[in-house]
Amino acid sequence: MLAARYLAGYPPELIAQAEQLRLDGRLADHLARRLPERHEVRSDGALFDYVQALKARHLRNAEPLNFVGYDAKLRVLQQALGTHTRRTQVQGSKLKMRREIRVATLFKEAPAALLRMIVVHELAHLRELEHNKPFYKLCQHMEPDYFQLEFDLRLYLMNQEESK
Fold this sequence. Notes:
This protein is of the alpha+beta class. The chain is built from 8 helices and 3 strands; from the N terminus they run ααααβαββααα. Helix 3 packs antiparallel against helix 8, helix 6 (about 110-125) packs across helix 7 and helix 6 (about 110-125) crosses helix 8 (about 145-164). The longest helix has 18 residues, at about 145-164. The chain is elongated and about 60 Å long.
């Protein structure tokens, strides 16, 4: 049961509905209706600008980002859709913190709302490192539909695996 793997932790009724949509072949149509808008953020430079705009709007006092880009190896190697890394770098006698956000390349073709959701998730790690209540509250502040989009992302990933 593919839905159980992607939707673990959700109520059994939702898992059953998602599985029925998948079995009936209606999952792709459902997602197309829920998430019709596509985005034009296809390059690393465009992604950097997109992330910076969201950061400037919601997290003005957060630390600056040194790198933002798509990463083709991300989902395969780390089983993640996005990462926020902090590395300490020695510069002379000083230590400098480098902050990077990497997003899986599957988001180049994903609906705009799902890209926004994963970027909001990674930006929230600038303030909260752990996935705790303040972290999710910040995510919801930046994207009011965060939890619905997270569920839709799971359906999208399920559909992607089904169509391979």
